[in-house]
Amino acid sequence: MNSILQKHTTKAIQEIYNVPIDKVEFQATRKDFEGDITVVVFPFTKQIKKSPVEIAETLGVYLKEHVDEVADFNVVKGFLNLVISDEYYNARFQEIVKEDDFGFQQPSSDATTLMVEYCSPNTNKPIHLGHVRNILLGYSLAEISKAAGKKVYKTQIINDRGIHICKSMIAWQKFGNGETPESSGMKGDHLVGKYYVAFDKAYKQEVHALVASGKSEEEAKKQAPIMLEAQEMLVKWERNDCEVRSLWKKMNDWVYDGFDKTFERIGADFDVEYKESETYLLGKEMIQKGLDDGVFYKENGAVWIDLTDEGLDKKLVLRADGTSVYITQDIATAIERFKDYSLHE
Fold first, then answer.
1. Which domain holds residue 33?
2. CATH code at 76?
3. Are the CB atoms for 39 and 56 separated by under 8 Å?
4. Domain annotation covers residue 103
5. 52-66 and 2-17 are packed helices; what angle lies between their axes, rounded to 10 degrees?
6. Would you say 341 and 153 are in contact if contact means Cβ atoms under 8 Å apart?
7. Parallel, antiparallel, or unpaired: how do β-strands 272-275 and 151-158 relate?
8. Residue 105 falls within a domain, yes or no?
9. CA 258 to CA 334: how far, in whole Å?
10. How far apart are CA 66 and CA 5, in angstroms?
11. What pLDDT, in 10s, does the model give residues 151-193?
12. Rounded to the nearest 10 degrees, what angle do helices 163-175 and 242-266 cross at?
């Protein structure tokens, strides 16, 4: 488009003002103005000896009359904003569609290596609209980058362990009566999500009852029996309790089956998947190393990092009971990804 406008703009200035112009400066039109491409008129004033607004108006009229691709124009303080016609874009898209390898560059041995993470759901509820948006953006970015000649790995981290997972598990134990995807006719991720909601409902009822009995809301939230059971289950999970691990595997398998059906419908795929349950131990090792090196510090039994000097905040990296949080496995996952795919190169 710029080459088309370059040709017609230099021709217009030659015909109207009898002034030769070697170069025309273009830029994207600012979002608060109508238009697609802006012609910067100020450099012409020295030779043409007229105001930039007058030059822009005259040039705009010429281009609209003589260039099919220019549908309209407007002038803002000497900047000529051109509106490119829909017909131009439609015609260009039709040309692109016919080229199977449009814009594609075969990745070379020294191609930039990228890893694009998207979706990354939790195994305590279904994939929702926010995940779908994330999938479409991530998958598109990955495929566009590949077409541009980059080496791309599409990945996700499945958050398959933690207190949120235990909430669904406790609720299923209490209220499920052995319900399965087969017996209910529900997708596995929807079924598990149903019990995550059931946990929240029961938790709120218990908190309300404790507040009514004289507890403060903060105390009630910490002392609600169903929350204490979920926290105990998480400790047992990290201690590799056989019964808890067996239930966790069964319910996660239900969720994975549901996720796979959703990914198939959307048409998304991944080159590699990481699971929090496979990385959290390395994360805990790194936390201990950070403690030894003075990167992290302990407070009331929990482990923290102080990032206030970086303009951020203090961040919990390990709970006082020794169980992991999101950032624990995030540290390990970053290490694993760089090691597995040489992303530093």
1. 2-88
2. 3.30.1360.70
3. yes
4. no
5. 110
6. yes
7. parallel
8. no
9. 27
10. 11
11. 899 999 999 999 999 999 999 999 999 999 999 999 999 999 9
12. 100
Please state at what angle helix 188-212 crosses helix 225-238, rounded to 10 degrees. Answer: 130
Token pair, residue 186, equals 């529900």
Residue 95 CB burial class (10 angstroms; 0-12, 13-18, ≥19): exposed
Final residue before a domain boundary, out of 220, 249, 270: 270
Say whether pLDDT at 196 is over 70.
Answer: yes
Enumerate the β-bridge partners of residue 113. 151
pLDDT band of residue 336 (cuts 50, 70, 90) is confident
Residue 318 main-chain phi, psi, to 5 deg: -160, 130
Q: What is the pLDDT of residues 127-161, one digit of tens each?
A: 999 999 999 999 999 999 888 888 899 999 999 99
Q: Tokens 């000649």 label which residue?
A: 149
227-262: pLDDT as tens digits: 999 999 999 999 999 999 999 999 999 999 999 999
Q: Looking at residue 241, which CATH number applies to its domain? A: 3.40.50.620
pLDDT reading at 103 higher than 80: no
Contact 47, 55 (CB under 8 A): no
Rounded to whole angstroms, the Cα distance separating 142 from 275 reads 21
Q: What angle do CA 102, 104, 107 make, to 5 degrees?
A: 175
In this predicted structure, which of 41-50, 312-321, 329-338 has the lowest mean pLDDT?
Answer: 329-338
Give the integer Cα–Cα distance in Å for 209 and 230: 19
Give the long-range contacts of residues 86-91, CB within 8 A, separation 24 or more: 88/1
Q: Is the pLDDT of residue 37 over 50?
A: yes
Residue 47 DSSP SS3: helix
SS3 116: strand
Res 345 pLDDT > 50: no
* Nearest one of 161, 155, 160, 159 to 273, comparing CA atoms: 155
Tokens of 170: 């406790």
From the list 9, 1, 60, the residue with the least C-alpha distance to 34 is 60
DSSP code for 159: B
